[in-house]
Fold these 3 entries.
Entry 1:
Amino acid sequence: MILADVIARVPGASSAAVDAASTSQPVAEIAYDSRRVAKGAVFVALRGLKADGAAFAAQAISRGAIAVVAESPRPAEVTVPWIQTPDARLALALLADAFFDSPSRRMPVIGVTGTNGKTTTAYLLSSILDAAGMTAGVMGTVSYRIGREEREAARTTPEAPDVQRLLTEMIEHGCRSAVMEVSSHALALRRVDGMRFAAGIFTNLTRDHLDFHPDMESYFAAKRRLFEMLDATAPGIINVDDPRGASLVTACQRPVTYGLTQPADVTAGPLDLALGGLTLDVRTPRGSIAIRSRLVGRPNVYNILAAAATAMALDVPLQAIAEGVHALPGVPGRFEVVSTDADDITVVVDYAHTDDALRNLMETARPLAARRLITVFGCGGDRDRTKRPLMGMVAARLSDVVIITSDNPRSEDPARIIDEVRRGITPGAQGARRTEVHAVVDRGEAIERAITMAGSDDLILVAGKGHEKYQQIGDRVLPFDDVAVAQDALARRQQRRSKAV
């Protein structure tokens, strides 16, 4: 790519300080972070919530940027080519796609969006594609999987150049397909514009991210964009049991529906739900598939239907669908059972961090609990505050014991966050059950208390952080792993039990 190609691809471009000689300069990279610009880069200045990237153009130029793409006019002191555009984010996405030679047109890329279930659905579908011989790369909340390499994910869907770079690396490492979670932030901020999706999946829509989206309609409009991007050949896989599903059917040209309660193209036969996993028949227009999975709970039935419907629509053999679902042992931080047969209690770690996800988690766990259900959870700081009392209400209604603690408090006072959670816990919210409610600010202490106070055959849910290996407190990012903390507490419980015998 040369600078002339950049000018040609920037939407609504008007350029300043561009001469014939400069347009032939080769472009080394498309950059959006002035601190990481390499020599020969084109720097795209994005408008953020707090600052305009154009303010950092001088820094980018000092590091070797040969041109700047920005929404604002060229400052007088800038001498490198300045390409003005009405939408720098769209320009970044289109330039990144072109710079990396459109990897989404060189292998099928499936996008998964929705509030809950994206990660598990992506893992299921990647396992199915692997079973079909279509080795799948994965990009999502837990990690980025590139061939045999697993990288920690900085965000669910990174900025456009990072998306395109990762897809290109997947191809270079032998991947023949890719599954990526597509967040509402990414869709609203145009990080995947210009891509071709071989299929799009909608899992559900519940309250979340209202610290970023003005309201639920804006949140849904962002999700809908994925389906508006699909071409006539690409199926849109839609959960029609979700109230928003029906309107998405009209957003794409090839809808394929799934569900348990509404008429759909892909449905489930009799379900057997147990702590050891799921057994069901998946009924598709191409035939029925006998499924056995080590995943737990009714929400995972939906995830299996979503993955199976997508694979079926992409002509993956039905046998590979069954094999792929069965081969998946589990998903990090998604109903992850961390206790063992040697323990007298069951401890589950889960990422549930919205009121709907917490409700689904506890409704899954409730019938599996031989005795009491103990729930440990918190709410993140600097995020949607309206869900805090709702999560408190749900936890108190469905648990025997609730321990409210810190999640990632960030810049907020964790004790104040806990108080806002407790506002949702009223006698009416607890129903017939008299729920014990405790507040323990330190998350490690909260998990320890739950495991110490539990009686034999109690089931403990540790919710909110799941796979995360850190905790954000103020401006510090500290190592913290719910799984490791719970396992350590279980080991101490076993020692106490051994001494008592």
Entry 2:
Amino acid sequence: MRLIEIRQEYHGKICRDIIRTRTDSKKGTEYPNFADSNNTSSVNIALGIVKRLNYVTNNTVISEQTAGGLFEKVTCEFLEKSFTLLQHLRPGKWYYSTTQTAISGFSQYEHLSYLEQVIKKDKTLSSALGGDYIVKPDIVIGRKLVTRREVNRTRVIVDPKDTIAKLTPFLQNNTDKQPPILHASISCKWTIRSDRSQNARTEALNLIRNRKGHLPHIVAVTAEPLPTRIATLALGTGDIDCVYHFALPELAEAIKEVKNQDQLDILSSMVEGKRLRDISDLPFDLAV
């Protein structure tokens, strides 16, 4: 299966399972449930996106929380299928999860579990340091450890008798607990409506500051139709690697169609500034 086909399948699931058509009680107009009914540009751009995705009107009710959870699940499925296509570029045994997996279950952050236990027992430490150490990303991708047999598959590289390479967590034989290595932390935002979306930055800084070892990829995926709102998450560097839109070409075409130059300028600025990419770019970026 080609990547474009996996992307089409991804959009098909989103259109079928997540996107719903709502009716504004005051205006009587219809809009997709990832648009802001109080913002004309948001509604028009979202309508342009769903038209390009061949969305069939569905008026059944779905809550924002349910939509967000399904968006995480479908995005994770897309990443697993697309990243598997690149196995020849980034070989390994990979672990995917959307069950709010705590980062303390991964090699770089397993020390946080002990730290959390100590803080809970000490009120002084708790008040001074807080307790927001254990991040639970929307989607995690972990890489399982390798055995010596795998390392020595074509020739002997590390012999059990050797006294070297005894500390790296990547070798399964070096540790008893054998937790996987966190390869990517992915925050999913069905929409970007409030300051709550900024918790992706807070989580990113937590991952950066509290790691012992390799920094995982830290990205965000969104279906937000307004570039001005995407910019609140995408602009700036130092925390999130990049923001990925679930349908970036369709978003750009929809903005051009409604002739909203301000939104198009902001979109172009983010794309050209390497702060916003399409979901199809993400598997390749994860292969780095």
Entry 3:
Amino acid sequence: MLSRNRSIKLQAQPFILFGQVHIVTLLIILFLCLGIPKYLNRSSGETTKRFGYILAALLLIDLMCKPYYLSIFGYPYPRNLPIHMCSLSTMCISLFLLTEKKFLYEIAYFWGIGGGIMALLQPDTPRGFPDLQFIAFFFGHGGLFLGIAIATFVMNQRPTHHSLLKVLGLSLIVLPIMYLINTILGPPANYWYLGARPEGASILDFFPDPPLHIPLVMALGIVMFFLLYIPYWIKDGGFTKGAESAE
């Protein structure tokens, strides 16, 4: 009985931002995202393809099952649908690993890294390990980053300025749709955090109260997208290429 009470108490511990568990979890994800692509680069193309299929299958199964198993453990069903930006990114990178359709990678790159970095650094999970939501959250986001890492560093995919504009346009189309979904479902539905701030500490704490924060969220997203493209823009010549074109 005592061990059972201790287990319940452990599960009920609040998540500590940048606490020991959070930092260790981030380091594990970083290690996997660097180590597995390095291993696959030394392996055959068939090994990469097989690993990609397995990762895609695991991520898609998790996406489809997550609303059900989280609801069984008491997390409200309306907030667990796989339509958050990171969930949609996970779906895109999984389908890319199965089909190699470039636009799926481009969506996952901008949405997944842009939204995923914010999510990993400021997780929307009230309790820490071994709480089910904590495990589901970091498995999904870790798998998302691993899929993007494999596509980028092993399969040699990369964004272009055209993909930047396409994903920006898609984001502006999907944004009002997500707001409408939140409105129809009502709380606790909060997809893309358009209806309320995340439960944990986040940069949105410094923004106006919802929905007045939406213009700032849009601006933040646009800045993040451009920051993610800058390394490739510099690699392609940046201002130097622009100056040569003008001449």
